[in-house]
Amino acid sequence: MSTPQTPGDEQRFTALFDDAYTDVLRFVRRRHGEDGAEDVVSDTFLTAWRRLDDLPTDHGNARAWLFGIARGTLANSRRGAHRRQALGIRLAAIEGSSAAPLDDSAALTIDLARAWRYLSATDQETLALAVLDGLTSAQAARVLSTTAVAFRLRLSRARRRLRRLVDEGPPALPRLAPAPTTDSTWEATS
Questions:
Q1: What is the CB neighbour count within 10 angstroms for residue 82?
Q2: Which of 78, 163, 155 has the alpha carbon at shortest distance from 123?
Q3: Which of 41, 42, 87, 173 has the greatest number of C-beta atoms within 10 Å?
């Protein structure tokens, strides 16, 4: 990991930044929310600067490479948030107070938004890379560290599951079986 030293490196980085900043920010906001998104993007570009020697020469691949860095930066950010939350819970327990419950998000009203919530994180990520971020199968596969064929298969399955959820609605909650009853005769004789 070396810091680029030539004026050409600076120009390549500036061109990448100018071209992809808005897209990377949108990518991060969609996964992370508004709060702290710019910090994640800033860390993403800092990592890209440090790894500029690894930057692909093809524009599309360079963009996908940057999305992959953003994805990893998001994962690091989430781990840090989970650690801070766990620490807050431990501190609250020590102080004898209870942690406040997280706010519920507003009820979703359109079928697609409701169905989206029932998709797995993998399906959401797959659909988002292809549809919302506009990456090709090869570029999205690079972000996910898989092959283009595996990504296309994953995308096909995610689309099918989303279509089923939109058409049929979210799955019904399973019925609970009645609680087993005890045989009082057996208990009396034992």
A1: 10
A2: 155
A3: 41
Q: Which residue has the tokens 């691949």?
A: 61
Q: Could you tell me the pTM of the whole model? A: 0.51
List the domains of the chain with CATH numbers: 1-103 (1.10.1740.10), 104-170 (1.10.10.10)
Cα separation, 27 vs 21, whole angstroms:
10
Whole-number Å distance between alpha carbons of 17 and 48: 10
C-beta atoms surrounding 14 within 10 Å: 10
Rounded Cα–Cα distance for residues 175 and 131 (Å) = 36
Query: What would the two tokens of residue 128 be?
Result: 């988002």
176 exposed, middle or buried (CB, 10 Å; 0-12, 13-18, 19+)?
Answer: exposed
- Burial class (CB within 10 angstroms; exposed 0-12, middle 13-18, buried 19+) of 73: buried
Question: How many CB atoms are closer than 10 A to CB 118?
Answer: 15
Q: pLDDT tens across 88-135, in order?
A: 555 445 544 444 443 333 333 356 777 878 888 889 889 888 888 888
| CA 103 – CA 117 distance, rounded (Å) | 16
